[in-house]
Amino acid sequence: MSEKNHGDHGVGPAASYYERHIFFCLNERKNGEDSCALHGAQAGFDRCKSQVKAAGLSGPGKVRVNKAGCLDRCAAGPVAVVYPEAVWYTFVDESDIDEIVESHLKHGQVVERLLVPPHLGR
After folding, report:
1. How many structural domains does the chain have?
2. Do strands 79-83 and 20-25 pair parallel, antiparallel, or not at all (unpaired)?
3. pLDDT by residue (tens digit) across 33-71?
4. Residues whose CB is less than 8 angstroms from the CB of residue 104 and which lie 6 or more positions away in sequence, other chains included
């Protein structure tokens, strides 16, 4: 077996198509339960996407901004998660999104004040 075919099996940062991926929960619960869609999730997604593009951060080897269904952390909503670091954020306005883009997506520095407390789930 060649070196190319074993070891990390093509998994990990060296094989990743994007350096970072941010997923925004845009789920809206139909049964009246609280959900991210009711707390500005779409606006946060839209702002992040435009800011990432404007900063020249989008594309292969850089950052991908994606919509997601329920991420099951509704109690902290709206939420977004950045991979590969698995950092969970909540946000309330454009300045929060701008800070996530500038600090984490651009420079790799976690925005501590926007972290979702680890115990908050659905």
Report:
1. 1
2. antiparallel
3. 788 999 999 999 999 999 999 999 999 999 999 999 999
4. 20, 82, 87, 110, 111
